[in-house]
Design goal:
This protein has two helices and no strands. The protein is mainly alpha-helical. Keywords: Metal-binding.
Length: 67
């Protein structure tokens, strides 16, 4: 994924790997997992709006804790 800087601990998909090879299966699993994580981020951002880019709290923490 080009959205992240390459780090030694970061697992990345293998480009142009044949689908029937171990590398291709790894890439398919990697892409499916990334898709699930991206959807989860979307759900979290819609549930907790303060996670959006603005990162502005709509309510003060004591007020929000009462909900």
């Amino acid at each position: 994924d080009s959205g992240y800087v390459l780090e030694p601990y970061l697992m990345t998909p293998i480009r142009n790997a044949p689908l029937d090879s171990p590398e291709g299966r790894y890439t398919a699993c990697h892409c499916q997992t990334r898709n699930c994580v991206e959807r989860l981020f979307g759900v979290m951002k819609s549930e907790w709006r303060c996670l959006l880019k603005e990162r502005i709290l709509k309510y003060a923490p004591p007020t929000a804790a009462r909900f």
